[in-house]
Amino acid sequence: MTGAIRLPSGAEGKPLQGWRVLVPRGGPWGDSVAASLRARGASPIIAPMINFAPTDDQPALEAALRRLAEGAFDWVTVTSATTVDVLSSYNAVIPSTTKVAAVGETTAAALVAAGYRADIVPSEENSARGLLEEWEAATEGQKGLRVLALRSAIAKQVLSVGLARIGHHVEAVVAYRTVGVPVAQKVVDDVRAGNVHAVLVTSGSVAEQVQEQLGPIPETTLVAAIGPQTQKDAAKVGLRVDVVAEERSAESLIDAVVHAALASA
Asked: pTM to 2 decimals?
């Protein structure tokens, strides 16, 4: 980012005072992030850029969620905040006897915000691969677990295939398809005019929509990615990334924006 934006004086307690920050997701996650931004003095702009469309095999998903509610699974794996949106839209019930594995802190935060819980979150790499690497230690080496693996239509089946290889009974079900959501023209105009100080990028799908709908992003606008994989995905679609969160969580993403703001003050 060049031409750094100056913070107003007296912003010590509110490091993002005067900053307008684009939040590219709605729902409980977007509301939570917006609240955290406001606490730091920012003015969040919630502009959902992706949404989920029904899976092509709706009966299979509905049947799996019914069995989930009945306690047919020992574990359910949730690989994205969008999967949480799907669970919420179906009023899905996760019984206390079923444990929940979230691939990262963003997904875990979305689960909690929606009234669910996360029993396992990878401590090292917040990804399907990271969850797989820590699975045996987290489950104390149990074998033959019944696992419901919910995923998007475009996701690689790293987790479900990996769990099956180490002896678990995995039912992999497509929960949704990801689709872009057109943002309001005012948001487009504000970003292109440089009136938005920072844009949060939370996934490769979001990066694609940011570049397609809002790009090229002005050099004076900070682009913050939630993790290295999102940064790589952004690069593939030609989106510049200025800062990357140290941890794959919403709070860490906001902290990265705060640090950049303080550095530019």
From this structure: 0.72
